[in-house]
Amino acid sequence: MTLPDPAAAQNQTKRILSIDAMRGLIIIFMMLDHIKERFALHIPILDPMDLAQTSPAMYFSRYLAHLCAPMFVFLTGLSAWLYAHPANQAFRSPSRFLAKRGLFLIVLELTAVYLVWAGSISTIFLQVIWAIGLCMLALAVLSKLNYWLVGLLGFAIVIGHNLLSPVHFTPDEWGYNLWTLMHDRGYLTDTGPFTIRVSYPVLPWIGVILVGYFAGPLYAQSRSPENRKKLLLSLGLGCYALLLVLRGFNLYGESLPWESQQSTLLTLMAFFNFTKYPPSLDFLLITIGTGLLLLCLFESLDNRFIRALTVFGSAPMFIYLLHLYVILLCYSLCYAVFGANQGDRFGVDSYYLIWAFAILLPLALYKPTQWFAQYKHREKHLKPWLTYF
């Protein structure tokens, strides 16, 4: 495949390259998870993190995907700060920018994303794109507050929402629908031709996008790359240290305490088995902490692999939609050729095949993504709709 011209890459700021590389990496991890959802759905495991059901291969494959949602939401908030503070220009409110894109993502979740899964899933799942859209709408309003108040509110939600875990509503209680949207995943409707299930309760993710916005000055033009790397390293290691204390002593941040298992590997799996729906404090510490350390690493790297990642990261919505439909097409072709070999579905039992497909898919989608990214950056001033992708 043809890689980006290094000379052209130098025309971008270092921070843009590192952020795009981070997005590109989590998009590849996301591909792995979606391939598993399409080709291993027949495996009777409700939760790939459940030690009583899962295998190490499935557990750690799922763990890579854990990085996706927290860092996408965090970087969305950070990017909103960068939009509001363009280099050598006056502040501009990000509210209109966020509101339009938030509404676009919600519509996208209910149309193009839903259609990908509609053939095999009868329920409308309000998932990560919907959640990011709502988070952007929330930030569109809350970004009008004082910067420090935005940060305080974000950290209060991220750190404190685990205190809300004992609060529950039954479907016949007045607060059920609001609480399902905000904190406890469940069905908004479970009767009629369509059922609607909230997979991503949005309150903790609003906290993450606010924290991301608060972290925006890490990438201010006035900050040197060396200083930024030191801060990213310190913050990432700080997340890890806090996690080790909270989780090590089962103090706070996770509803399910860890216990020693039959082997060292299983004990490690139990220790790092964190709640994603909604994301616990421990879950956010491990994922965002890892993301900060990777951003620090990408600040110092400039090689073929990193430049390839920046191509995916510079057109994230395009590659997100493209890979979903390509996976669906590949599944449909396999079903047509080989038939239903797993009940009424086609599927594979080997995780080696899942991983092999996850390696081949980014290679196959690199050229169309590179073409679109170049077209987008060349034409976006004349065609503003391109910036939504």
TrEMBL record:
Q: What is the lineage of its organism?
A: Bacteria, Pseudomonadati, Pseudomonadota, Gammaproteobacteria, Chromatiales
Q: What's a Pfam family this protein contains?
A: HGSNAT_cat
The cross-references to InterPro entries, in alphabetical order and at most eight, read: HGSNAT_cat
Q: Which residues form the Heparan-alpha-glucosaminide N-acetyltransferase catalytic domain?
A: 15-222
Q: Which UniProt keywords apply?
A: Membrane, Transmembrane, Transmembrane helix
The answer to whether the entry has keyword Chaperone is: no
Residues annotated as transmembrane: 63-85, 97-118, 124-142, 149-169, 202-219, 231-249, 281-298, 318-338, 350-366
Q: What is this protein called?
A: DUF1624 domain-containing protein
Organism for this UniProt entry:
Rheinheimera marina
Asked if Transferase is a keyword of the record, the answer is no
